[in-house]
Predict the 3D structure of the following.
Amino acid sequence: MSDHDKIYSTKFQDTLERKTGLMAITIAVAVAIGGIVEIVPLFYLPNTAMCATMAGADPSCNNTQHKTRDGKVIPMDKIVWNPATSTSKTLNDWKPGDGVRPYKALETAGRAVYIREGCYTCHSQHIRPFRDEKDRYGHYSFAEESMYDHTFQWGSTLTGPDLARVGGKYSDDWQRRHLRYPRDVVPESVMPNYFWLEKKPVNVEETVATLKVMTKMPFNPVPEKMYTDAYGADYQGARTELQGKTDMDALIAYLQGLGNHVKIEEGVNYRD
Ligand code: HEC
């Protein structure tokens, strides 16, 4: 037997690999430890956690800044929209590039359609920092870009393209034609037809209830003032925005708002 053919394994590994059940348990333990080590620190490190989400959150935090434990403020105004420092004071004045903002009423309704229809089973919303992804989809995603996403829509399957920066890539008209019958515009597409979304009116009260819940989330809640300044204390403005709209209109509004919140400047390394 040549050296080449020898099987190098320990007795422990040998036993493990012959016992499927034990192997499965050890894999689960290893993955769980790895996952915890990776995820838990993100909730506590000052430069990854917004001040309102850190243990012992302080009321002066408006959710658009990081704070170190000794109180030093790290402003995030360039990435997260802060009405106090921005020239756009309410959600209605907000323009693309002003920074990450919470979803408007119609977009919130569209997001619910996106989840209900399982779009995430084929599409991710998370551009990884690799050259090929950057060339195809645009700048890699920032953590803050999904800070108001409860639950996040990062996804893991790329049957279809990543949608994290699809906002503004096509006209509303293209989106409508494509969602109705994808093969009308992309003959080789395997995406299902969604023409019936045009017949379904948006659920106004459910959407208003969702907006209110978003202000109470344990992590990165939407500062309530952002909604009440735009829609009034009774959210009547949100109902007006949703009036007469269909699930299709809502879904298009949601897609057109994806990924254009932050003004990405050439040459800036956003990981610093
Ligand atoms: C079975 C998998 C599948 C599902 C489910 C699916 N898509 Fe797609 N989608 C695709 C594929 C494949 C493409 C690429 C071909 C094309 O443009 O149609 C695509 C393309 C797209 C595009 C164009 C992206 C670009 O950059 O060109 C958008 C927008 C889109 N899908 C939105 C949606 C939405 C919204 C839903 C849910 C209502 C959805 N998709 C459900 C597979 C899917």
In short: The pocket of heme C is lined by residues 114, 117-119, 121-123, 159-161, 163, 166, 169, 182, 186, 189-192, 194, 251, 255 (CB under 6 Å). The longest helix spans residues 20-39.
